[in-house]
Amino acid sequence: MLSIEPIPAFRDNYIWVARNNQRAAAIDPGDAALLLHYLESENLSLVAILNTHHHADHVGGNLELKARFSCKIYGPAGESIPGLTHPAREGDRISLPEIGMTLDILDTPGHTLGHIAYYGEGALFCGDTLFGCGCGRVFEGTMAQMHASLEKLSHLPGDTRVYCAHEYTLANIHFAKEVEPENEALRGREAEALGLRKKHLPTLPSTLDIERQTNPFLRCFIPRVAEAASRHSGTSLTSPLEVFTALRQWKNDF
Ligand code: ZN
Ligand code: FE
To answer: What is the pLDDT of residue 105?
Structure first.
């Protein structure tokens, strides 16, 4: 049976491992040693690496893992990915029969220009585009690209499980409460996330339903969110993109 497990890495990264019988695929293995330890202790062999973007905390383990397992390496066609064997872009469907997974590629530029997400089997691996109650910083792309990428992800089915690459949920909820202090779902989510983190458990995966109810970056079209962004920026914002841009800038300095 297919299962998806988190391996905490660095300060707040997750390397997600999709496993089935004795085969595994790793999403964004930034650290080879941590993953090797897990694979050995679970007697798993690695058939594929799936990279969402080129940052070192996501691709740092690629070459060592490839040398060990001769695994396939999928990653954005438009970025320089160590050991890349299968460049991927929107419209591609990749199949991993060894673990019983088929995944569609979505282009999600913004955090980086070539950033991609993997969607299939009810799971979304969204790298540094969408976070629990937040979103990634806009480093290489434009605000418009990031906003469009988040819009694209937010239209996937509500029960889609969201596997983000970082544990940022509590800090993001703190910001979201500044934007929407009266959001009931947000308060419920905070209580739940606090309980999980107290036990050192991940707050992820979340679902797109939960994100649409609580994540301000997916709620730019909601009048109350637009009002908060307008108040904070001191300008009257109307379009969802303007609201998104103001929220992202507000969060950068938060
Ligand atoms: Zn990144
Ligand atoms: Fe990252």
So the answer is: 98
